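Notes from the 1:1 (GR / supervisor)

We went over the backlog. Supervisor wanted to see one worked example end to end before approving the batch request, so GR pasted a single chain during the call. The sequence is below; no edits were made to it. Supervisor asked that the structure be written out right there so they could see what the output format looks like.
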Amino acid sequence: MNIYHYTTLEAFIRIWLSEELLLGEYKNMNDLYERQKFCGIDIGPNSGVSKEIRKQIGDPIDFIFKQIAKFRQISFCNDFKDGTKGCLSSMMWGQYAKNEKGVCIEFDKEKLLERKNGYIPGDVNYDVNIPFITISSSCFAKEPDKEIRTAIIDNKDKVFFSKHKHWEYENEFRIVSDSKSSISIKKAISCVYVQNPYSTDTKLLKKLIKNKVPIRYIDLVTDGDYVSLCIKNLE
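Structure output shown during the call:
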């Protein structure tokens, strides 16, 4: 199974040479809901967060945000349910790869996740109803750092893998970690896609890659009254 990462040529060169994908902070996400997060504390039968704990950690909600902020992530595009390859999304090319100036990197998902210790992978779920993240006040009783982290991971589907339905066209798979700032891509790249097979950038890519992985390009094909994208090999 393959997954795809759209990026600029400059970013791809760094990725190729370093053999690593950097994970980004959620505060830099382009989704309003993800940048802000929406969470609260469930008091339940307890009296809430004690004064002693508040003196240690400050405002409990701010403390939760700080713990969530320790998690970084990297996003990919899956193949689509209708059989369309994830590298054929015209929207993704325009939004993340600067159209003809960028690339789409195809990864072998299994090989990328071989070194999965410290990472939380998952498909993103889309709904018009964004889940509210509730953390029990009991998590602040003794060891807030450890307990809040556990609560965040227990609620990972709500915290990291839920987005508004407006974003479902991204068909996203993501990898999350609070202990790693990057993920190794050694031997995981299976193909690189470009839009213009004759550009200076493509010639640069060919010199950089040196036939270690195939380079293919995205072209238009007509079928009666309709036009669609297709994949072609470089000559």
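Supervisor's comment: The chain has a mean pLDDT of 89.
Batch request approved.
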